[in-house]
Amino acid sequence: QVQLVESGGGLVQAGGSLRLSCAASGRTWSRYAMGWFRQAPGKERVFVAGINWSGANTAYSDSVKGRFTISRDNGKNMVYLQMNSLKTEDTAVYYCAAGSNQYGPYNAWGQGTQVTVSS
User: Which residues of the chain register pLDDT less than 70?
Assistant: First the structure.
């Protein structure tokens, strides 16, 4: 079983940057693909970005492509989401997840971290 803990959320102005981190634990963690999802108030949780076990392959939603970058450091048991050129519509709770490949399905989740982008 994989345990995931997100950090790095906060309040930022539109156009700014944040980096989210996800600390993973579990004996076979590095074999999992990892992803970031987000859920805005009153909306469903949606896929943001995913990365395969080695870090060689990534996937992004159209809404963040070119602005967000997912990466992982298997040696440190960490996954990151670098978010640049943030928009107010990026405001959401962001969740880290583990799954079978970067496109899913995902079956282990963190508790989430709030990102708020002000205008």
Answer: none
